[in-house]
Amino acid sequence: MIRPLALAVTIGIGICATVGAVAQTPAPAPAPAQTPTCKTQAAEKKLAGAALASFANKCRKDAAAACDLSAKEKKLAGAAKTSFTKKCVSDAAGT
User: Fold this and answer.
1) Does the pLDDT of residue 22 top 80, yes or no?
2) How confident is the model at residue 34 (pLDDT cuts 50, 70, 90)?
3) Residue 78: which region, alpha, beta or left (left: phi > 0; alpha: psi -120 to 50)?
4) Is 11 part of any domain?
5) Where would a tag sit more exposed on the chain, N or C end, judged by fewer CB atoms within 10 A?
6) How many domains does the chain have?
7) Given this model, what pLDDT does residue 13 score?
């Protein structure tokens, strides 16, 4: 009779320890706020027509410059740099 009771107590303690460990695990940090895309910035400013086109071109150029700098910091070259820059500019533009 002692063995089944000892087994039940051992299992109970194991479960409590596991639940306690899980409960004390910190939650993952929230994702950092992302910079607004060119598309969202233009929508916030309610741009249209020539103003929208001008803003979009300037925003894409600024994004390309920032992405090139980021690629340089990561020491990318060739196809890796081209691919990275293309995706980076696309993400920044919101397309």
Assistant:
1) no
2) low
3) left
4) no
5) N
6) 1
7) 57
Task: Please report, for the chain, how many H helices and E strands are present, in that order.
Answer: 4, 0
The per-residue pLDDT for 32 is 43
Is 8 domain-assigned?
no
Q: What is the pLDDT of residue 52?
A: 94
68: exposed, middle or buried (C-beta count within 10 Å: 0-12, 13-18, 19+)? middle
Residues 6+ apart with CB under 8 A from 35: 92
Q: How many CB atoms lie within 10 A of CB 49?
A: 7
Helices 38-45/78-93 angle, 10° precision: 20
Q: Does residue 81 form part of some domain?
A: yes
Residue 2 pLDDT greater than 90, yes or no:
no
Supply the pTM of this predicted model: 0.59
Which letter, b or e, does each residue of 11-42 get, where b requires 16 or more Cβ atoms within 10 Å of its Cβ? eeeeeeeeeeeeeeeeeeeeeeeeeebbeeeb
Supply the pLDDT for residue 31.
40
In a domain, 33, yes or no: no
